[in-house]
TrEMBL record:
Keywords: ATP-binding, Nucleotide-binding. It catalyses: a long-chain fatty acid + ATP + CoA = a long-chain fatty acyl-CoA + AMP + diphosphate. Residues 20-390 form the AMP-dependent synthetase/ligase domain. InterPro entries: AMP-bd_C_sf, AMP-binding_CS, AMP-dep_synth/lig_dom, ANL_N_sf. It comes from Rhodoferax mekongensis. This is AMP-binding protein.
């Protein structure tokens, strides 16, 4: 019986069959880029792999990467695998304390440092004496340079193989609810997931279509690692572009002209708000309603976003308002919502052309089994299922059922056509003083559909009723500060929003008030995870001193 192909087997095939085809396109500043073919990519990876092997690291040794997305991240991962080691990627926005925790918990033997914005603050988290190699785009440093190592090192030859059960990746979750956990993924399972993702994508864009993707969501997160990097390593006929900076993002998108583009709900909302800043929603809605002209306008809007070539667009990582999906589809963008998590290597559910509905996260991908527990929890068994939590067998026992299904922590319902609808988080449910449980996610989705709002959080643990904190849209915040009349207008709109949302809720779910956050939540101020999910406990802790005052008042909308 022939042994199943693993990730590196695909890579070695591309090295031969697509040797001169561009695989990676890296911006280097000022609009300049460097292209790397498959042959060049593997030459760099083989040289670094030879260097790693010369360090006499134990098989399976953890080698860490602290870097924003770049071509050398991919090269380093391939080198780590070929050298017989396991990759540990750290979010490029993590604090020094988290950097230290991950490096020490994983017992990393070596660290690659790459493109970073706050390395001065992160550097103290690196243990003294740790061997470090710097990517070409790393901040100024005194570490050994990647180019110097590869220039003096002969490439590793042959086709170094890994076992299917070898751990390829130790992926630390973003820690939105506590200390990050190390999720272990084996070669056989990440390959199975990547094959499934590639097959799903090819079925939608055409098997002969050369895919182009912009890699900008953190590669330390499973969504980007699976759907962008791993799928492209299996496919071979993909060109990966990288973003230069936040300021050049739209230019980066227009350079890449992605055929497939994935993002998270917060960014899809920001794109929409950017469009509304140039054209009022009512005017755009009117233009889109006009036959023929509507299609032209929609395509012009997508071109302005750099998405006019996109055959497939996906949203994941967090719930997205159904109205937002409908808006993009009206522009002509095939935006679909999927559902997965770190523990199944982002291989779980996706919508199809025939079976989809805004507000639902899709049907099971090939090979995925799903059922709903008696408590309403979604249970998943995926080909990409993780091996376990690193050094935490106690957690493994908690999260798996006796027959091997993973307890997702999400509550959901399955429709007759197989579509899964998420209704909240098992652990995010909170009880008011009236003894009733409230699921925040569905209420937040209703609030987030408002163009004036960037994001929101519903809470009210132990309070007589729930409340919501809202962050105003980026384009709205400066106008509110500068113009009292505009602030009054927004205030009135928020009151109307509160009334309309409450009209759709059960009595025990109704919100007593909307509180406008004084500043936006961000990764930097600790209110968002690196993938822009809200950190509920952190936000609740920050506003706790003000709760008594908020609840004692009668205002529907309060400005914190």
């Amino acid at each position: 019986m022939a042994q199943a192909k693993l990730m590196l087997d695909y890579v070695y095939e591309h090295e031969i069959n697509h040797a001169d085809q561009i695989f990676l396109t890296q911006p280097t500043g000022g609009g300049q880029v460097v292209d790397y073919t498959w042959k060049q990519t593997l030459d760099q990876a083989r040289r670094m792999a030879a260097h790693l092997k010369a360090q006499n690291l134990e098989p399976g040794s953890r080698v860490a990467i602290l870097s924003k997305n770049c071509a050398h991240f991919i090269m380093a991962e391939l080198a780590i695998w070929m050298a017989g080691c396991t990759t540990v990627a750290i979010f490029p926005t993590e604090t020094a304390d988290t950097v230290r925790y991950v490096l020490e918990h994983s017992e990393a033997s070596l660290l690659f440092v790459g493109k970073l914005d706050t390395f001065d603050q992160q550097q103290p988290g690196i243990p003294a004496g740790m061997p470090i190699i710097a990517f070409p785009l790393a901040p100024k440093n005194s570490y050994e340079a990647w180019d110097a190592v590869t220039a003096r090192t002969k490439p590793l030859t042959g086709k170094p193989a890994r076992g299917g059960k070898d751990i390829a990746i130790l992926m630390y979750t973003s820690g939105s609810t506590g200390q990050p956990k190390g999720v272990m993924h084996s070669f056989e399972r990440i390959t199975a997931a990547a094959e499934g993702i590639n097959n799903d994508t090819q079925a939608r864009i055409g098997t002969n279509t050369r895919n182009r993707m912009l890699s900008y969501l953190p590669l330390a997160h499973v969504f980007e690692r699976a759907w962008v990097e791993s799928a492209s390593l299996v496919n071979g006929n993909t060109q990966l572009f990288f973003a230069e900076s936040l300021d050049t993002f739209i230019q980066d998108l227009n350079r890449a002209k992605p055929v497939t583009f994935i993002s998270v709900p917060r960014l899809w909302l920001k794109f929409q708000q950017g469009v509304f800043a140039k054209m009022p929603p009512k005017k755009l809605d009117r233009l889109l309603s006009i036959p023929i002209l509507g299609k032209i306008v929609g395509r012009k809007v997508l071109k302005g976003l750099g998405l006019d070539h996109a055959l497939l667009a996906g949203s994941g990582s967090a719930p997205i308002p159904a109205e937002l999906i409908a808006w993009y589809r009206r522009l002509g963008l095939n935006l679909i919502e999927g559902y997965a998590m770190t523990e199944d290597f982002a291989y779980s559910h996706n919508s199809t052309d025939k079976i989809n509905a805004p507000g639902c996260v899709g049907v099971p991908l090939k090979g995925v089994e799903v059922r709903i527990s008696e408590e309403g929890e979604v249970l998943i068994k995926s080909p990409g299922q993780f091996v376990g939590y690193y050094k935490r067998p106690d957690l493994d026992a908690e999260v798996f059922t006796e027959d091997g299904f993973f307890r997702t922590g999400d509550k959901g319902e399955r429709r007759a056509d197989g579509l899964l609808k998420l209704t909240g988080r098992v652990k995010e449910l909170f009880k008011t003083s009236k003894g009733k449980y409230v699921a925040p996610a569905p209420i937040e989705n209703r609030l987030n559909a408002c163009p004036r709002i960037e994001t929101s959080m519903v809470s009210g643990v132990g309070q007589p009723s729930a409340y919501a904190i809202v962050v105003l849209a980026e384009t709205v915040r400066p106008q509110v500060k500068a113009d009292p009349a505009f602030k009054a207008e927004v205030h009135a709109e928020l009151e109307q929003l509160l009334d309309s949302v409450n009209a759709e809720l059960a009595d025990y779910e109704k919100l007593q008030m909307l509180v406008v956050a004084p500043e936006p939540w961000s990764i930097e101020n600790g209110m968002l995870t690196p993938t822009m999910k809200i950190k509920r406990a952190r936000i609740e802790s920050a506003v706790e001193p003000q709760l008594a005052n908020w609840y004692s008042g009668k205002d529907k909308v309060r400005w914190a």
